[in-house]
Amino acid sequence: MDANLQIKAHPTVIGSISDFTYKWCVNADFSEDDAARLTLAVTELVTDIVLFAFPDDESGEFLISFHRGLSKAVLTVHELGEPFDPDRHIYNREKAVKEANFDGAGLELVRHLVDDFQFINLGRAGKQFRIEKYITAQPTVDLFSDEPVQVKSDERIEGLYTVKPLTLEDAEDVSKLIYRTYGYSYPHDDLYYPHRIEQSLARKDKFGVIVRDNESEPVGYFAVIRSTDSSIGEVGEAVVAPRHRRRGIMTRMLDALVSLAKENNILGLFGLAVTVHDISQRVNIKMGFTTTALLLAESPVIRYKEINEHYPQPISEIIDFLMLQEVTKRFIYVPPVYQKLFLRIYKELDLPAVFCHVPSLEMTPAKSDIQLTVSYEDRHAVIVVWQLGQDFPEIISEAVLNLQKNELNVLYVDLPLNDSATPSVVTRLHRAGFVLSGLMPLFHHESDYIRMQRFVCSLDFSQLIVQSEIGQCIVKVIKNELKWNFKESTTNSPSGQSATSIC
Amino acid sequence: MNGITHIVLDLRKSKIVDSEAVIYLFNLSNSGVDITLLQPPPVYFEALRILELDREPQFQRINVVRRKTAKVSRIRTRSKLSSIDGAQEK
Questions:
Q1: A112 touches chain B (CB under 8 A)
Q2: What does each of the 503 residues of chain A score in pLDDT, given as a tens digit?
Q3: Do the chains contact at A39 and B16, CB–CB below 8 Å?
Q4: Which end of chain B is more exposed for a tag (fewer CB within 10 A), N or C?
Q5: A357 exposed, middle or buried (CB, 10 Å; 0-12, 13-18, 19+)?
């Protein structure tokens, strides 16, 4: 469903892009009216780029990426044309009518036709326009006439419960279970819409299990959401009705999910476990997951009914990972400061890797190849680096500057561990106030990445509940790096000695 | 546009009408040309509302043959158009 287009900035392409966008929207389950709205928004952006971004350069090009999420589409337009400030192009009806001056009309339409529109100035890396639109169309009949879902035989828990793979017919019960457990406080809005659950199951974006009691009432639900750029999946959306907790339901569901994931050829599973409580973390440890990273301030404070109704700060999350299949040996360049920690993580994951030693190489390509994803709901941004280039420090500086401007809490940067330039870039990130987040195994294109993070909100580390030894080790490394950042030392490495000695 | 007093724009196959088209219609209408739009897509009306132009005379005087009421095969001459204008939803 996802598509990426590289297009020449020439007026003749506008119609073709409009046609493509409309067809893509219809295939992404938008209603015809919403498809037209989104198409018009894209057409306005493209027209502006074609007409104004490259005034003296006929070879100018721009990129459009189309991404369909579980319940919304995200379209980004990235161009390297001349600088532009949308705040100076505000549509004014009076000027339009009296002076025939329609400056800003296109952007005004875009703002009203989509659910979220953001302009991100990336400095020398260009500009990005980002559009989000929710898919509100009812699912079509043939969406459900897909091949029947294989239902495995029942699995009883102490004779009281049954665990079954989730089917389309379970969607409404999942929504009810979420409501009965969390009221309307559960952060994943999609789970309150049965048809969205049905759609994501039908498209195989996720699979899951449901637990029912003897009266066939739903009491537990757990799912795996497939990653879009790697053959891994996230275990998430876990819920057990309060009256049925502490009976091993979560563990049994996760056990069933692991089996389902293996059948679906998933290479590894990861779980994002909140650090507000340790329930999920303990289950993950019991199931053999290994903590690989800590994502600080990953989402705004969420008040879970009966769990953390007075939590004072954004939610930080642990990444726990479980390898499911054998993978080829990886040759990686880990910054010396983190080698001991990463050796331990790779060993615990049983992930074969050769730690390569490199001289400090300069980055050769002039331009970096990155992907920026901003989650305004979660108030964080992620930069995934496909290729490091000389302009990377500037990209990072610009991104950090834009953090607070866009009311974000944290910026994560994923650097490829198979790139020999990564260690030197990590050193530069330290100087820019970044600290370690951890290892992201197989996270992009089945390759391993090191995640660094820079947060701009206040965090009290004593509020973080981290269960695993490696997790606690990562916390210590981060705290040590923050201490170094606070002292504003002039040495090159923030925590070389302490990070290795801690772990 | 010298000498042209009436223009019919067939939008039956159009999915969208963008701001460039709105500007074109505005200027054309200002120049005194009678305009008829055949079955513009719904997003055309939405765009005019967003830009707060839907009540402006330049757009009020445009003849619109809406999708539900149009009998396109009969529209051939000025006089036919006039009769359809009378039946349109405004």
A1: yes
A2: 789 999 998 889 999 999 999 999 998 888 899 999 999 999 999 999 998 888 877 788 999 999 987 678 999 999 888 888 888 889 999 999 999 999 999 999 999 999 999 888 888 788 899 999 988 754 333 333 333 333 343 444 557 899 999 999 999 999 999 888 887 777 777 888 898 899 889 888 999 999 999 889 999 999 999 998 899 999 988 888 888 887 888 888 988 999 999 999 999 999 988 898 887 888 888 889 999 999 999 988 765 555 555 677 899 999 999 999 999 999 999 999 999 999 999 999 999 999 998 765 555 788 888 888 888 878 899 999 998 888 898 889 888 888 877 788 999 999 999 998 899 899 999 999 999 999 999 999 999 999 999 998 888 898 899 999 999 999 999 999 988 765 554 444 444 444 445 55
A3: yes
A4: C
A5: exposed
Phi, psi of A130 (to 5 degrees): -125, 130
Contacting residues of A for B51, CB less than 8 Å apart? 91, 93, 96, 105, 108-109
Q: Mark out the alpha helices in A364-421 (DSSP H runs).
A: 392-405
Terminal Cα-to-Cα distance of chain A (whole angstroms): 43
Give the separation between CA A60 and CA A378, rounded to whole angstroms: 34
Contacts of A22 in chain B (CB under 8 A): 15-16
Q: Do A36 and B41 touch (CB under 8 A)?
A: yes
| φ, ψ of residue A368 in degrees (nearest 5) | -85, 155
- Using the beta-carbon criterion (under 8 Å), do B27 and A100 form an inter-chain contact? yes
Contact across the interface for B42 and A18, Cβ inside 8 Å: no
For the question of an ipTM over 0.85, the answer is: no
A465 interfaces chain B, CB cutoff of 8 Å? no
Q: How far is A402 from chain B (nearest CA, A)?
A: 29
**Side chain identity at A384, as an amino acid letter?**
V
A–B: how many Cβ contacts below 8 A? Answer: 63
HEC profile for A197-249?
A: HHHHHHCCCEEEEEEECCCCCEEEEEEEEECCCCCEEEEEEEEECHHHCCCCH
Residues of B with Cβ-Cβ distance to A100 under 8 angstroms? 23, 26-27, 30
Number of continuous H segments (helices) and E segments (strands) in chain A? 14, 20
CB A268 within 8 A of CB A324: yes
**How far apart are the C-alpha atoms of A181 and A173, rounded to whole Å?**
12
Alpha-carbon distance B62 to nearest alpha carbon in chain A (angstroms): 16
DSSP string over A457-483: S---GGG----SHHHHHHHHHHHHHHH
Backbone angles phi, psi at A324, to 5 degrees: -115, -30
Residue A51: CB atoms within 10 A of its CB come to 14
